[in-house]
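Format notes (please read before filing issues)

Several people have asked whether sequences and structure tokens are stored in separate files. They are not. Every record keeps both together, in the order shown below: the sequence lines, then the token lines. Line labels are part of the format and must not be stripped during preprocessing.
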Amino acid sequence: MGHKFQNFSELDFPTVTAKKSYIIKRNKALLSKIHESDGEVRVSHTDLHGPSYHIMGVDLRNTDEVEKKLMQAQIDFSLPTIFLSECVLVYIEPKHSINLIQWLASKFQDAAFVNYEQVNMNDRFSSVMLNNLKSRGCTLAGVDFCLSLDSQKKRFIDAGWTGCKAWDMVQVYQSINASDRHRIERIEMLDEGELLIQLFQHYCLVLAWIGNVFQDIEITVESRMSTLNID
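Then the structure lines:
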């Protein structure tokens, strides 16, 4: 059986949340998805608050401001909570990203932090990636945590999380049912299997947890995948 979320809150740059709030406010179909008969939707320049859905602009480097925003969203720190982060920590200076995840570990009783970002960033492929990003004026301030799966896990353990697991995206992809993988590959018309595997080797999924609610989550990989079965 599925689980109903009591509260879904999204934190991002104020410039991003301002655009999202504006779009939702002007779109009746989107607005109807977050509006409930016994609740109202409040919108400011950068934030949007529905009965159980919230978008808020904040600087994640400032944990005092993060806490203030979570309080505005009526987050219950005692309830099991999942944090989803997609290539976020890697753009934050290490001292600030560590401070953020330490603070989260100290505030929540049962929580999981699911982090998707780069890994194995110490080879020729990653060097090309970093140079391409740098040429566009984009630097990965937290890349030192992305050297290996072990360095990814150590970051959370050192910050006070109870435990941590990590898988590269080759392992994650391999855990998907074979028939579903083949269907996806046909839909996406993938014809560069080796290149995709190389890309998968440089991204990972990290699961850190506080308490014991989320500790048994596992990804089962039957065998190590070296190629894609692309027809």
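For reference, the curators noted about this record: The radius of gyration is 20 Å. The chain has a mean pLDDT of 90.
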